[in-house]
Amino acid sequence: GRVSPVFGTHTHVLTADAQGLKGGTGYITDIGMTGAYDSCLGVDKEIIMRRFCTMLPERFDYAKGDCMLNCVVFDIDRSSGKCTAAQSFELR
């Protein structure tokens, strides 16, 4: 309850645990990523596969195509600073 939101992003996969904690802090483990849906964390997946198979370095290039946006909306009470709700979204 000492901060309004706490959020993480490491695995790059939107988690389904967005919530308001008892003390008034909003929480989600992983907000997710923004980038091309058919990719490896936004990078062209063919490049990733070549790097994996050959163990040779190769420049990353952004993947092209339809994108997605992962996000979370925290509702914060302006007078108390407490989070009243948290909702995650994935837009494609």
Helix and strand topology:
Layout: E1 5-7, E2 19-20, E3 26-28, E4 34-36, H1 45-54, E5 67-76, E6 83-91
Parallel strand pairs: 1-3
Antiparallel strand pairs: 2-3, 4-5, 5-6
Structure description:
The protein contains one helix and six strands; from the N terminus they run E-E-E-E-H-E-E. A hairpin with a 5-residue loop joins strand 2 and strand 3 (about 25-30). The longest helix has 10 residues, at about 45-55. Helix content is about 10%, strand content about 35%. The mean pLDDT is about 95. It has a three-stranded mixed β-sheet, with no helix packed on it. It has a three-stranded antiparallel β-sheet with strand order 4-5-6, with no helix packed on it. By secondary structure, it is mainly beta.
Give a quick rundown of the structure.
By secondary structure, this protein is mainly beta. Helices cover 11% and strands 33% of the residues. A hairpin with a 6-residue loop joins strand 5 (67-76) and strand 6 (83-91).
Which short descriptors sum up this protein?
3-stranded antiparallel β-sheet; 92 residues
